[in-house]
């Protein structure tokens, strides 16, 4: 039976850069450099994550801008730091010729393909969105024992970190922002005159599931089940509603608007190539992303029919970029789509359209200066979203049995040795915690910590011996 041997290089200093190290080790192996030697590992640690990302940024841009391939001079500059390289022949100027079907990358111009994010802004504290957080007020959140809550929506520390520049936005952040919009613009799910509604990010997948099963016997039952999710919303009294849509195959966020008064469905997409392609198409059914509009069209028509609304079957589909009303500011990378969706949403609710500012507004106007929708203003947009969530949310404890992430053995030792006070962590009502220990040289290790608040003791159960620790029961009395 074939087996393989695992080599623990122990060069990765964090929990997020594994992909960069895989690429780098693959490059070294191709160039005849063994990542296992002591000297190589020492050199890799010296280069560090920032150096590795800088390397790949230079290599990628050079390869995408030159049709003849990657300049060997760049490779040799990197490989010169290692002693056992042996693959590059003298006189070879370029390697790995770029295929013709991969478009040339021109810096400063929109690309037809995804552009990787080589650097995260949170690597520099000066450009961190979260750096202004009140450390004392939000200590429990960043420690993983509290979270932000607005009604039934919640966001933990890992969710907030996604607001850093260079990070993808997830469902939790968008749904929290949706809740902020509902509160800010006084939208309720009752029939008290609300004319606009925002659905959660989980609504469209349910509609799509029903749509995908239209030709099956259970389609009627599925639609009845679907309607229960929004039974409290008075669709008959709505002029329009919005759907934040995550296209999972593309890993991309877009915003869909359904207008019951004008009978059209518009898609807003910040991805430039999609807008550019659809602007040259004459028929909407041939446009990029039109399937999303068709799914919502089928749903809206069904609802209009059941609620006896006018013209239930007549709907216009307007894909992103297809007409002027669907042309929006575009992102200049592959990770800001969720931010644009949230800002699109607020602009429509506040201004009626994107960047529709009063020309007579003063330059110091808070909304106009901080929420101007553009790729250049992305830091302020992310910061404004964070502040909006913080201003409307309450701090609530995370229920018992949630996972805490501890990133060093020293922190676990402090936990075991009872060097912390449970009253400071709001754990008096919790019976036990499940602690995930992240060690640089080990996989995830789960340890059960049982709290005895009356005796101020901690019992660590499981296999702490695998960390070189002995099972310990400590008590202060």
TrEMBL record:
State the source organism's domain of life: Eukaryota
InterPro entries noted in UniProt: Papain-like_cys_pep_sf, Peptidase_C48_C
Q: According to the UniProt entry, where is the signal peptide? A: 1-35
Example GO molecular function term?
deSUMOylase activity
Q: Where is the Ubiquitin-like protease family profile domain?
A: 153-348
Q: Which UniProt keywords apply?
A: Hydrolase, Protease, Signal, Thiol protease
Keyword Signal listed? The answer is yes
Q: Which GO terms describe its biological process?
A: protein desumoylation; proteolysis
The answer to whether the entry has keyword Metal-binding is: no
GO CC annotations on file? nucleus
Similarity comment: Belongs to the peptidase C48 family.
Return the protein name: Ubiquitin-like protease family profile domain-containing protein
Q: Which organism is it from?
A: Crepidotus variabilis
